[in-house]
């Protein structure tokens, strides 16, 4: 490679958001943890990273929960069976649900950047019981 060719390549490496990553989450009817699961069910990522939701098995999606969305974050909702990637630029704790399986406890948590656990550890009252139980279990195992 001549120097003339190498320079744009090096510039590209430097200019790119070098630390932005894409984290993969797989959606299952059943896995080792039980029925209706995101795998992993907890992610801690950097601000500006992306999350890709992969439908390993059919009839799932990924959607934000209005009462578990950081201030200023844009809600999202993928289509059922969609291979969906979203960039998360606002820091804080995101509760994610599978729309058809929310009441069955198909949820996960994504912590983006610095999370104020003093305010975000409290779960909202309007969650279905099984979603609330799953969130509690996720937070207990992921953060302790
Ligand atoms: Cu689902």
UniProtKB/TrEMBL annotation:
Cross-referenced SUPFAM superfamilies: Cupredoxins
Signal peptide: 1-20
Bound cofactor: record note: Binds 1 copper ion per subunit.
Protein's name in the database: Pseudoazurin
GO CC field: periplasmic space
Record: residues binding Cu cation: 60, 98, 101, 106
Cofactor: Cu cation
The entry's keywords: Copper, Electron transport, Metal-binding, Periplasm, Signal, Transport
Keyword Signal tagged: yes
Subcellular location: Periplasm
Domain Blue (type 1) copper: 28-112
Presence of keyword Electron transport: yes
Main location group: periplasm
GO MF terms, alphabetically ordered: copper ion binding; electron transfer activity
